[in-house]
Amino acid sequence: MPFHRAFRCALAVVACIVAVAGLAGCGRGSGGGGADSDGSSEEGRGQQGGTLTVFAASSLTDAFGELGRTFEKRNPGVEVRQSFESSSTLLTQIQQGAPADVFASAAEEEMDTAVEDGLVQGSPEVFVRNREVIMVPKDNPAGIREFRDVARSGVKLVLAEEGVPAADYAVEILGKSNEEYGSGFKQNVLSNVVSREADVRSSVNRVVVGDADATFGYASDYTPDIRDRVEVIRIPPDLNIIATYPIAALKDAGDPGLAQEWVELVTSEEGQRVLEKWNFEPAA
Amino acid sequence: MKRRRFPRPIWGSDTLASGLAVGALALVAGFISLPILSLVLWTISEDSWRAMGSPEARDALLLSVRTTAISMLIVISIGTPAAYVLARAEFPGKRLVDALVDIPAVLPPSAAGIALLLTFGRFGLLGKYFDAFGVTISFTTAAVVIAEVFVAAHFYVRQAAVGFAGVRRDVEEAAMVDGAGRLSTFTRVTVPLAFPALVAGAVMAWARALGEFGATIIFAGSFQGVTQTIPLAIFAEFQTNIDSAVALSVLALGFAFVVILAVKYLTRRATEYEG
User: Fold this and answer.
1) Is residue A144 a contact partner of residue A214, using CB atoms and an 8 Å limit?
2) Strands (E), chain A
3) How many C-alpha atoms does B181 have within 13 Å on its Cβ side?
């Protein structure tokens, strides 16, 4: 009987080791799987197939959505998968090994970090520019008529999270405005902030729903489907900051050829036309 | 003697089966412990303990404690009598009410957030009347509490109803025969007998409120010290500083351990009562 129990114990220990080894094997197996998919995508290119994964700033949602369909039409069998989030979130995900082929950022800063970390293939290209605006609900509950009104007390202002380019540009603009409107301006505006959203599209949505009185967004965020619910207030050009968007193929791209093709489409005349249609400004 | 009726198991197959079962358990345990281990290892290797003392972390912790305490106060004071009615009374539509209580537990929290926004938001069904009186709920700590109560109440009410149902009616009736009123029977007999179940339910509800993310970020928004609870702070920090996101996650992990241990202890006591 004692022998029997000892045997069971030994068996249990062996089972545990097998289980742990199995898990470790899984880890390695997925690495091998990556190599496998490399092989299959090479094979796929022969038959014009494969997947392209694009990580893009959330302000690019509509323009890149349209370009994705163009790309799929041009490359039959290729599937374009896109993830739209704040550039800072995307950068963190890429740093943590997310399987992205292309990174399109709403600010140079995130792209610079990606380059420093050796994640980028070749050098990034600025492909488009964007302008910040103030957005308010159509019925404008806080009565905001011009840019400086956002500093009035009681305005419920929503910004994107710190580190999100749209919000960082906004803070930069406020810094510049201090010279124009007095030194307390930036502080007054920032004390009106009631919520920090994950990305610029989420903060625009707060205005669309009508719970926020105002937000900073890009001109390109004023898309046709929100035009009947949102009003745009211009920021004086001498105070505004032009956002520049860099794009680059990533080192770990499953199919570097496809990734490069995407960059070429975005920077091509056709790509620029689509971006302009969605209120972006040409890069040059 | 009875054993003889079964065919004598082949010695090897029996141990093989139990070995495989043990292996399966090891797989489950490994699957859960590896991510936990990764959190702890990262914290040690990257020395991110310091981030736990950052103002963001401190504000999030304080806000989480404050909002969940208020939520629990509301859930317990309203949930206790509600659960008693659910356990004892028969009334038309009881099944419907019974099912309604379960819905927030099954509904994705993000859907709950949208639902709350459309109810209490500035243009919401109720919110527009509040707004007329100058009361806004979105982006306030009150919104966080509403979200927490909405998603967590189920856990307390359900558990409390089970606890009350376990209290024998004749014990309550005996107390009333002895001259106790309905209310004092409830507070002096029924509640003490169901107490372990009530506490276990409250702890589960508290844990759910503490982990609340989806409904809060959609309905209440995220602002440090006002609506940014621990889960929202983890999400916000993930954008800029992964070290402090990890540190906050470890903090949440510590809470989870305390909650599980408390529930295990209390449910054991509850079954001891019954036995």
Assistant:
1) yes
2) 50-57, 78-85, 102-104, 125-137, 157-160, 193-197, 214-218, 230-233, 242-249, 281-282
3) 3
Tell me the per-residue pLDDT of B42-71, one tens digit each, with 9 for 90 and over: 888 777 777 788 888 889 999 999 999 999
Cβ–Cβ < 8 Å for A254, A37: yes
Residue A183 lies in a domain: yes
**B97 part of contact set with chain A, CB < 8 Å:** no
- Domain-located, residue A6: no
3-state secondary structure of A79: strand
Residue among B23, B222, B242 minimizing CB distance to A19 = B23
Enclosing domain of residue A155: 130-242
Residues A230 and A251 in one domain: no
CATH number at residue A267: 3.40.190.10
Contacts of A85 (CB under 8 A, 6+ apart): A55, A57, A58, A93, A198, A199
Say yes or no: A223 and A258 in one domain. Answer: no
Residues A107 and A204 both lie in one domain: no
Residue A222 in contact with residue A135, Cβ under 8 Å?
Answer: yes
Give Cα separations from B197 to A131, B190, B194 (angstroms).
58, 12, 6
Tell if the CB–CB gap between A196 and B34 is shorter than 8 Å.
Answer: no
| Whole-complex ipTM | 0.70
User: Chain A: nearest CA to B188, how far in angstroms?
Assistant: 46
Q: Which three-class secondary structure state does DSSP give residue B125?
A: coil
Say yes or no to pLDDT of A23 above 80: no
- Which tokens sit at B54? 């950052």
Number of domains in chain A: 2
DSSP A7-51: HHHHHHHHHHHHHHHHHHHHHHHHHHHHHHHHHHHHHHHHTT-EE
Q: Residue A83 and residue B120: Cα distance in Å, rounded?
A: 31
Task: Based on the fold, state whether residues A166 and A264 are members of the same structural domain.
Answer: no
Same domain, A135 and A237: yes
Please state the pTM of the whole predicted model: 0.76
Note whether A211 and A143 are same-domain residues. yes
DSSP structural state of residue A62? H
Q: Is residue A108 part of a domain?
A: yes
* Touching B: A residues 216-275, CB under 8 Å: none
Instruction: Return the percent helix, strand and coil in chain A, to nearest 5.
Output: 50, 20, 25
Q: Is residue A18 part of a domain?
A: no
Is A168 found in the same domain as A146? yes
Task: Choose among A12, A195, A197: nearest Cβ to B19.
Answer: A12
User: Sign of the C-alpha dihedral, residues B182, B183, B185, B189?
Assistant: positive
Tell me the nearest-neighbour CA distance from B109 into chain A, angstroms.
17
Contact B222 A195 (CB under 8 A): yes
pLDDT in tens, A51-84: 999 999 999 999 999 999 999 999 999 999 999 9
Average pLDDT score over residue span A241-262 = 93
CB-based contact A15 B223, cutoff 8 Å: no
**A138 and A226 in a common domain:** yes
| Cα–Cα distances in angstroms (integers) from residue A263 to residues A68, A93, A104, A108, A249, in the given order | 12, 20, 9, 16, 7
B129 Cα to chain A: minimum distance (Å) = 14
What is the distance between the alpha carbons of residues B243 and B57, in angstroms, rounded to a whole number? 12
